[in-house]
Structure formats: C-alpha cells, structure tokens
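If your schedule permits, I should be very grateful for your opinion on a structural question. Kindly check, if you would, that the fold set down in the tokens agrees with what the sequence suggests. Thank you for your consideration; the sequence and its tokens are set out here:
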Amino acid sequence: MGKVPLSTSKNLPNTQSKRKSDASIIKQPSSSSIQRRGNANSSKACRVAATASGNKENATNNSKSSSDISDDESMEAESITHTKSRQKSAVHEYASKISPNEYQCKLCSKIVRCTVDTNSNIRRHLALSHGKMQLACKSHRSPRATIPSDKKNLLDEAAINCIITDARCWNDFKRPGMIKFLSVAVPGYSGPSSRSVQRQLKKLYFKKQCDFKNELTEVENVSITTDLWRSNRCHHYLCITAHWLNSNYQLKAKILSFRKFNGRHLSARIRRHIKRILTSFNLTNKIIASTTDNGSNVKAATSQTSLFGIRFHCMAHALNLTIHKGLSLWPKKSSTLKKTNNSVNDDTELNESDNDISDDDTPNDQSEASNEPDYNSDGEEDEDEDEQFDQDDDSSSSTDNEEDGNESSPLSIMNDITAVMDKCRTIVVTIRKSSILHEFIGILAADSSIKADLIIDMRVRWNSSYKMLQRLLLYQSVLENLYEQLNSLAGVTDQQRRKLLNSKLNGNDWNLIQALRRVLERFDEATRVLSGQNYPTLSLSYAITFSLLHYLRNRSDDQLDNEIKELLLDSYSKYMIRDGKEMAVIRVSALLDPLTHDLLTREDKNAAEAFITKEINDKRRSKNILSSDTFTTASSISTDTTENSATSSSSKSSKGMSIITNFLSKCGVESTNISIRSKKSLTITQELAKLSSIPKDEYEFGSFWREHGDSLPKLASCARKYLSISSSSVASESAFSTSNYVLRKNRLALSSKNVKYTMFLKDKLDI
C-alpha cells in the first residue's frame, strides 16, 4: 500500500487529532501546524480562564452561545424559567413544616398530619379553626346556601314549564344573567341544566300523553283538524288537533300529534300516519269529522268516512281561494313558466325518501307503503287547489316578468286589478330591499305618526292582499313625498328609481285600491270570526256564508265596488257554498247554536230537524241511544262545575256573540233577524218544538245548553257532537306558527323528537 498524499490528510476532520493515529496510514502533522494549534489552544485557555473568573450567569450564557438558541430566545427562555420558580406558600406564615408529613400551627401549636406533598389538612385547620378562609381549598369552603329538596323540585318543574310554554332555550336558566338574578331572587337555587330539561321533557311528554288518553276516554265524539307544514330547514311536519265539548259545554282543542313527516306526501302514507295516531289515542270509533285544506293528497287521505268522519274543507282557505281566483290576484304565467314552477314544487315535496316514520315513530308500518296504492302526490294539484308556498316574501312581487292577467275575462276591471296589484308589490318590494329607501320612508312615516310598516302579500297568507292595500293607503301621503324627492335622494340606483317611477300609482289606481279595501274588509272580518277557538265556529260558518253572499249580491252606490263584487260572486259560489252531508251538518250546528238558530231559513230549519230526527231514530233502533239516566247524570255532574266556569266561558262566548252580530250588521243583514224573538208557548211533545220556542237572545252557546241541556237531552247530545266541529284548520295553522318560533334561528339544532315533545306539551301544561 502507498502512503496517503498530504492533500488527503488536510481534508480529514479535525476530530481525527483526538483519535489514536496509525503511523502507517495517517501522516503526522507538521511542526508549523502544531505551533498554530498550540497558539489557538493557548488563546482558548485564556478565554476559559477569564470566563471561569466571572460570575456564574456569564458562564451559563457562554455555554449556550454555541447552541441553536439565539440571544433573545435564550433571554426569553431564562425569563420563562424564572417565572416558573416555586413560590413560598402562604401556609408557612401560619404553620411550620416539621417533617415530610407534619405541620405545626404557629397560632395554636397543634401538630397536623398531612399526606406527603400536600398541605390540605393544615389549610383546613387554619380556615376552620382560625378563620383564614383565604387559605381554604375549594372543597373546604363553606357550602353555598341551599333550599329544601321539595322546594327545589317545585321550582324545577315551574322552570321547565316556563321553558316549554315560552319556547325558551334549554339552558336559559344557566346563563350568567339568569344565574345572578336567581341568586338574588331565590338564594341557593340555580335552575335546571339543559340536560335535565331534556330528560324531564321526555318524562313529562309520556305522563301528559297518558293523562290526555284518559281524558279522551270520557269523550263520546271528537273532531280533528290536520295540515302539513314545512320549516325553514325544509323539514315537513304533520299536525293533528282534537276538538270536543266537555260536560260543561266548553269547547276544548288540543294537539294530538305534531311529528316530522319524512318522504313523499302521498295520500296513502298520510292516511296511514293519521290512523296510527288515532289508534294510539283510542279514537278510531269516535271521529265524527275532519277539517283540512283543499290539498288533493290530504283530501284523499281523509276521504274514508268510516275512519275520519265527514270531511270539511277549511272555510278560511276557501275564503282565501275565493279572493285569489275571483280577482285574479295571482294570475297564471305562461305554460312554460307554469311547468317550471310545478317541477320545482314536485322536487321540493316529492324528491325525498319513502320513509314517513320520523325518529320517534315505530318502523312497523314501513312495509305498508308498497302494498297501498298511491292515489296521488302532493305535487299534483286539483283544479281548485292553490296551496303552494312562496319561497320568499318578495318572490311573487317582481315586475320583471310580463303578466297576462286574465285575457279571457271580458271585464277590464280584472286587468286593472292585476296591474294595480303588480304596481303595489313592486313599490313595497323595492322599498324593502333598499336600506336607503326604507330608512327614508321610515322617517317620513314617523313624521306622519305612522308606526306600522309596509308589508307584502303572500299567496297562502290569509287576507295578506287586503292588509297590503290597507297599509299602502295609510302610506299614500308618504309615498307622494317620496316621489317628490326621489330624483334628489342620494344612494338610490337608477334601476330603483326606474322601478318606482314605472309603478307610480295614479288617481284611478288609488280609487281602485280604496274599492278593493272596502270589499275585502268583509272577508278579513269573516276570517277572524272563523278563527276563534273559544266558541263553536261551524254554526257561525252558516251565518257567515249567507251573510257574505247577501253582501256580494247587494248593490252599493260605488260602481267599482259593484264590479268587484260581481267578480267575486262566481268564485264565491264555487268555493264557499256547500252541499251534501257537509251542508246538512252545518245546518244542524246552526240550529243547535242559539246565536244562529233564528238565522236559519224555514227550508234549512226543516232540513236540520229532519236530519236530527232521523239520526235519533236510527240510534234508538240500533239501541245505541243514550238513556235518559245518562243524560241526567251528565247534567248533574256539569251542574257542580257550572258556577265556577260559567263566568269565564260566558265572557269568551259573549265575545263571539258580539263579533257575529257586528259582522252581520256590516254585511247588511237586518238586525231584526237576530233581535226579534217571539216568546212562543212551550210544548213538551217534541224537543225540537221546545228548542224553537225557547227565547235565545239572552244566551250564548254554553250558557244556553247548561240551562236547557237536561230538558233537551237528545238535542244536547247532538250539540256536543256537531258543535265541536271546527269550520277551519286554524288550530293546526296556529300550531305551525308556534313551531316556527320554537325552531327559530338560535334553536335550529333542536331535534324533531324534542319538537314533538314541546308542541304536544304546550297546551297540556297548567299555567
């Protein structure tokens, strides 16, 4: 082997000098290199000596100079290390540590044993024996004020009822402000947590459900209303409400079910769901009538009389359809646009899974979906149906699309109405969508002492068109001021100005709006009368139907009013005039209600009496008629509670009397029809004759039957049966309005099961 060249040895690392050299491989360093290295080592030794003579801190910093921590980082690390140094415990001011597990108190010389590395026992001693509470551990501090368990349970129950009734968030009583308030109002009470509320909600639901079932076992006849609703999260819920008259002739209405409905809204699936609910409450043989909207799927679902009784079309929906169809407030677009809209509606409600069982329903009925025929879907509408929801309040108010009005109508007034409604919607939408216009209008309205805001009408919102026109009339002077200053108003775009100028209302437009408001006001009042839930409404539907018909046929001095009435007459006869068994039951309910008894025509009165006579005779022949002893017992039971509840029920029902009296007067129905009551001689042979002979001007429904029910037992049973029927689905609509608040923005995460519990309990709690 040859020797390694010198150049190679120069490239070797310096660390090789510390290793043991092999003379045969590595060449020894030259004397000059040794001298240089010696000088370097001498300098390093001097530096080390200087460092060693310095303080300890400088030595530490010098030792870190060769690390990867910069100077500022090393200072920061040193600072952190310094802050983490252990501080002397305040315990040592009052106690001395005499051994690893013993402390001696300096205040009383007592020796306290502690676990190694802890001083909790001496802390306890100093806090409890010498009042040094600042040294006490959290677990040793004096407990907060407490209340008896019975009172706490009572307060928890009241808090949970408050949460359900007001649709509050589960953790409302654990919010800082509420905790502070409770600490002052009820020291020692902090309210239930959200988890406690959810646990109690489920228990309360099943308890109240059982109580409700027991309550319904005492009821002979029940009517229901049902409707579907879509939440903001596009979840569909089906609501069923029960209506009946108790032994004291008080109208009761409560929610039977409010559940999420999954999948397609086919009539067979809706019917199966309703039947399942009725079966769970043992009501399958007690249903006398069902009130729904005019949706084809719901109509088909409740068409079986043996299961759901007589089906009634919601009169509030019928009034809404009468106005929309008669005045062409929502004219149909071109066939292409209509097809597009229908496909959107189909996708919204039909493009879902085929499982209608929500997370709280039993899955046993899922197999029935394939066995039952699908009569129709909710995407298909009857010719008379107009029950589709607008996706946005302003979606139907845009004027960018040409509207053909109703070209087939020979009456130009219909085209004028369409054009005026188009202008009104454009004005309202343009103002509402512009913050500048909205703020400017608000200032002008405040100067005119107007507190209400402009509103837009919606297809499915009852009387919303009337309210929009009424509000525009209130803003007439404000809008005139807006147009005067529109060109100089900063921040308004040219497109907004153009829309407002193109939609400016002239004198003829304002006259037409005035006429529409006058005519539609009667329909608004009729809807409010039918929306009452404290008095029978089916009997009032008879009075409202024929009073409105009288109003529409009666000519006024204003030609515009007469033309509008003429347009409404055809659609009114189509949607409002009933026939068949539905009308027969309405006549019977009107006959049995003292408010409407004398409004019946002779023909309708005879027909109602014949209907009742036939039903009672059929019951007698089938041996299902109630005995007189049963009626006597029921009457005696009701007598005990009459005095306590007569005052409250009388005040509610007298309100219904004044409402219907005022409505009839405004429709032009002669007051003598309801005020002149001849006191006929009483007969005992027939209850119907006796009913006709009793003067009724001093009674409302409840007080009349509480006084005369025992002497007219058969008619009293008919009154309980038929006057519990609701003429509208307002109960379901009201539940949807409530659930919309329950599922407001800050509670969107609420599960469908908790929504079901909450909605069911809202009218079952004793507040």
